[in-house]
Design a protein that fits this description.
Chain lengths: ~230, ~180
């Protein structure tokens, strides 16, 4: 044993002896008896860990909830896309245009409306055309009730629509002769305007009339304008 | 004093009677440790009562049944450290004379021999850590290794603190 340890032990024995002498009469109070303290145990709340959901299940529930939100959002966006597609098939015929409900009925959408949608042209109802006189053969010219206007407004060349609605033969023949200057739909008049030269007026009038009758198109729906050139 | 290991096993299974039995075997030591460390019987009783409840709640986690005594003293040590912090916060500063005065009044030490007053006065002039180490060593008889485990300090730190504290106390007692 070193001097340090010896000295330490001496001091410890000295202090211990002092404590022994003063600790004899220390009375332990009743309040720290087990019989008294055992009553406190009844007030101890039960361990919460028993009712806790395991961490792995809580993680699983969190991932499942996140997936549900993502799937729901995707379904919502998809639904919105379908609705937009349906809305793009809005019919432009007079009979169907009265209600938006008809937009969801593809069978009721006229062919002209689908074609216009395919070419991404803006279709709209021209109110002034609603008051236009009814054609002799309405079935033959269903879209005569509407002005199909390409970007640019009234008076623009509507060669494509003219060809579509009056027949390729008529205009092709006229243009081939070089006697048709231009053909377009007049939004204000609600008719097709065929602008021709004076040089070929007689022959072109005759040809157009023949073809129009052949196609069942009333003369009310087109107008021939002669331009001196 | 030895603790009934079979009773410790039953207490770990949640048996209140068994726990009460083993507690009774260490109760006196716990109370004296708390009384000497805290300096008044009120705080000592509270600390021991809290230790009783906390030990019952946590005894299922006790691995070594033979270490029950040092384990419950460790719980009390932690409790007392918190309590001492509360006392310091409450009083803002620790007045050793007041601290000792409470102790003397509570235990009627002043009517005992002057030797007791001197010993308790010397104890009261130690720091909190030093007081706990001296009581655990001199009153409870624990080794420095056991005290180090209870207080969560390196054994070397406990040895040096105990050495200095004993010298300090002895000088104060001898001077009177």
């Amino acid at each position: 044993m070193t001097d340090f340890e010896q000295g330490n032990n001496d001091n410890l024995e000295f202090i211990r002896a002092k404590f022994d002498s003063i600790s004899e009469n220390i009375a332990v109070p009743q309040s720290v008896n087990a019989s008294c303290l055992a009553q406190k145990l009844n007030a101890v709340p039960p361990q919460l860990t028993v009712t806790k959901t395991p961490v792995k299940w809580r993680r699983f529930a969190g991932v499942a909830a996140a997936l549900a939100v993502i799937i729901g959002a995707a379904a919502y966006v998809n639904m919105g896309t379908l609705t937009a597609k349906n809305a793009g098939a809005v019919p432009i015929s007079a009979n169907d245009a009265v209600g938006a409900v008809a937009a969801f009925d593809e069978a009721s959408a006229p062919k002209e409306a689908q074609q216009a949608d395919a070419k991404q042209e803006k279709a709209r109802i021209a109110p002034e055309n609603e008051a236009a006189p009814a054609p002799a053969n309405a079935d033959a010219v269903p879209n005569m009730m509407y002005a199909i206007e390409p970007e640019g407004g009234e008076g623009e060349l509507c060669q494509f629509d003219f060809l579509q609605n009056f027949g390729d033969e008529l205009v092709a023949a006229a243009f081939a002769d070089g006697k048709v200057l231009k053909a377009y739909i007049s939004e204000t008049e609600g008719t097709f305007i065929i602008n021709i030269t004076k040089a070929g007026e007689e022959s072109i009038r005759k040809k157009i009339k023949e073809l129009a009758e052949e196609k069942g198109i009333s003369s009310d729906w087109y107008k021939i304008v002669v331009t001196d050139s | 004093m030895t603790v009934d290991l079979q009773a410790v096993s039953m207490a770990k299974a949640g048996n209140v009677e068994s726990f009460s039995l083993i507690y009774e075997q260490v109760k006196d030591g716990l109370y004296k440790y708390a009384l000497y460390t805290l300096g008044n019987s009120h705080d000592a009783e509270d600390a021991v009562a809290d230790t009783f409840v906390e030990a019952f709640k946590g005894i299922s986690n006790l691995r070594d049944e033979a270490a029950f005594k040092s384990w419950i003293f460790r719980i009390l040590s932690v409790r007392m450290k918190r309590k001492i912090s509360d006392i310091i916060r409450r009083k803002n500063t620790v007045n050793i004379d007041d601290f000792l005065g409470d102790f003397v009044a509570e235990t009627d030490i002043e009517r005992e021999t002057s030797d007791k007053v001197v010993v308790l006065g010397a104890l009261g002039r130690l720091s909190n850590d030093e007081r706990m180490i001296v009581v655990l060593s001199a009153v409870q008889g624990y080794t420095t290794k056991e005290i180090a485990e209870m207080l969560g300090c390196p054994q070397g730190t406990i040895s040096s603190k105990l050495h200095r504290s004993l010298i300090k106390m002895r000088k104060m007692i001898e001077v009177g």
